[in-house]
Fold this protein.
Amino acid sequence: MKNFVKFSICLFAFVSIAFTPQPETSNKETVVVIDVSHGGDDFGVQLGTYSEKELVLHIANQIDLLNTNTNLKIHFTRSSDFNATLKQRVEFINDLQPDLVLSLHINENKDENASGAELYISEASKAFVQAEAIAKSLQLQLKTTPINKVHIKKANYFILKNSEAPTVLLQLGYLTNDTDRKLLVDPSVQDHISKSILGFLSEL
Ligand SMILES: [Zn+2]
């Protein structure tokens, strides 16, 4: 009987440990703002029938559709074709105080040979150190996509300087470069980029 009691106590202890809720780190909600640049009268970069405002909106909408992670809350500065001012975008961001801001753009250059994606961060940002760490891991993530040339650069763009949260501006590639353009307008590449960005955000 004694042994049975001992066994029962051991079993109870084991069951208690096994089923005691562990401190939940996985339930922490990550809040992200995706800044969908340009919109409305502001087309951003344009070439032929392609425009930056439509390409970045398409990627953003795909990310929104694909996101089934309840611990990842993504806010967008726009979800349709209108243009919010930079000041309005920054106010929206600073009110939300997200964990990360990702501003999506498409690049252009008079030199058609300029190509590749670029991640911009600002040393004038309060959250520069975090933004730099985020840019480095996003760079590794994006290198697994067809847009595998990804450089990190510094610039004092309005949104980078004025957002209080860690902010990274992503130029996905050059619409003015043949190779980049073919990738940026290819639905399967757009899909890959959207999934890659979403995967990155889910791991934050
Ligand atoms: Zn832009």
